[in-house]
């Protein structure tokens, strides 16, 4: 067995925690069957992860394995065309949103009644055309994505997770049919993205609470991750896992690092215009989504680890000392005691959890983030 101390990651940062779990997920695909295990220990003043893998594995071999597990390239060289289609879809979404807003404003102002002939005429002339345009644009993008213009099936859904529920259902069915006992990665991702039965008031998918890049300020979760899959280097993975984070990578943040919460009023430039992050950490953290399914609860969507307490939604995650394989970790992050208003520390300690951190889901301007974590 070989143990790697991932000293670049700390348990009190949601992005770093998810990157540690993503490293476990990717390594488990290389050495399946519970051979890869993750633990945490106090080092350098923080809880930091340790990963145990089978056999004698060098530092370089470990990095090569991780890079091979997250690096992907499109099957066809048509990525620029796909980005252009993303812009068409975004423009169509905005046009439809504006038309629906006008309809709601006029009905509220009693310009016409919702079920009147005037309302029906407005819907037919002002709302139906952008709906058709959006449907055509999304279909064109889906055709290009399924032809291989995206690096991965999980990024073929769209630039972000604000899509028609039928789009998710279609790719989820495809992933389920292609899944095997040894490889159900794509299927687990679609289970984490959301549920086609849970939609917002505009009929758009209500996505997982981990989806914080939904087109606002031009930031998109899936297109950004797709670019990272193509561009990431072994060195960027090494910097994220083994070194103090220097935040030298530009753009394509998932929004999971509390350091990204930078209100405009306290800066000389607009933070929405760009961000600095750690590409290796973001790409590994993305892989951890497979451990956090999102399921219907009542009329809404429940994201594993997230619960609404009083006026805020919070994400709570555990820190444990014993080396644990993926099945146990997946069960542990979903433990109901973590989402209690005040978790019972004695109970958590009895199941091996030595610390639990909690971070608020927040919106700053038009962007969504995590606030700095605190002990739960």
Topology:
Layout: E1 2-5, H1 14-30, E2 37-43, E3 46-53, H2 59-70, H3 79-108, H4 117-149, H5 165-178, H6 185-193, H7 221-231, H8 234-242, E4 249-250, E5 276-277, H9 279-287, E6 294-297, E7 300-303, E8 306-309, E9 312-320, H10 326-333, H11 345-350, E10 353-364, E11 367-370, E12 374-375
Antiparallel strand pairs: 1-3, 2-3, 4-5, 6-7, 8-9, 9-10, 10-11, 10-12
Q: For the CA atoms, what is the radius of gyration?
A: 22 Å
Q: Please count the beta strands (DSSP E, at least 2 residues each).
A: 12
Oligomer: single chain
Structurally, the number of domains stands at 2
Strand content: 15-25%
Q: Mean pLDDT, nearest integer?
A: 89
Based on secondary structure, the structural category is alpha+beta
Order of helices and strands: EHEEHHHHHHHEEHEEEEHHEEE
Low-confidence stretches: none
Give the biggest beta sheet: 5 strands, antiparallel
In short:
The protein has helices at residues 14-30, 59-70, 79-108, 117-149, 165-178, 185-193, 221-231, 234-242, 279-287, 326-333, 345-350, and strands at 2-5, 37-43, 46-53, 249-250, 276-277, 294-297, 300-303, 306-309, 312-320, 353-364, 367-370, 374-375. The chain is of the alpha+beta class and 376 residues long. The longest helix has 33 residues, at 117-149.
């Amino acid at each position: 067995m070989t143990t790697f101390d991932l000293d670049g990651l700390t348990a009190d940062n949601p992005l770093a925690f998810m990157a540690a779990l993503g490293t476990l997920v990717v390594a488990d695909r290389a050495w399946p069957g519970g051979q890869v295990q993750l633990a945490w220990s106090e080092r350098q003043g923080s809880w930091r992860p340790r990963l145990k893998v089978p056999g004698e594995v060098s530092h370089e071999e470990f990095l090569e394995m991780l890079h091979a597990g997250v690096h992907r390239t499109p099957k066809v060289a048509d990525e620029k065309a796909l980005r252009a289609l993303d812009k068409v879809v975004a423009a169509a979404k905005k046009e439809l949103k504006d038309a629906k807003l006008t309809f709601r404003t006029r009905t509220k102002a009693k310009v016409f009644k919702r079920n009147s002939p005037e309302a029906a005429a407005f819907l037919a002339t002002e709302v139906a055309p952008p709906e058709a345009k959006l449907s055509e644009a999304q279909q064109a993008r889906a055709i290009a994505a399924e032809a291989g213009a995206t690096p991965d099936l999980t990024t073929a859904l769209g630039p972000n997770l604000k899509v028609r529920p039928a789009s998710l259902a279609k790719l989820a069915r495809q992933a389920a049919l292609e899944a095997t006992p040894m490889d159900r990665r794509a299927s687990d991702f679609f289970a984490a993205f959301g549920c086609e039965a849970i939609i917002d008031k505009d009929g758009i998918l209500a996505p997982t609470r981990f989806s914080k890049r939904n087109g606002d300020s031009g930031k998109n979760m899936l297109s950004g991750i797709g670019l990272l899959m193509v561009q990431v280097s072994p060195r960027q993975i090494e910097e994220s896992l083994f070194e103090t984070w220097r935040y030298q990578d530009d753009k394509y943040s998932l929004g999971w690092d509390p350091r990204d919460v930078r209100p405009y009023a306290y800066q000389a430039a607009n933070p929405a215009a760009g961000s600095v992050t750690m590409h290796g950490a973001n790409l590994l953290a993305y892989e951890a989504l497979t451990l956090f399914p999102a399921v219907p609860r009542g009329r809404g969507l429940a994201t594993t680890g997230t619960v609404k307490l009083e006026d805020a939604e919070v994400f709570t995650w555990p820190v444990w000392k014993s080396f644990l394989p993926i099945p146990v970790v997946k069960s542990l992050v979903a433990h109901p005691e973590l989402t209690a208003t005040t978790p019972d520390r004695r109970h958590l300690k009895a199941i091996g959890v030595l610390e639990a951190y909690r971070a608020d889901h927040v919106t700053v301007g038009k962007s969504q983030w995590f606030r700095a974590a605190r002990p739960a």
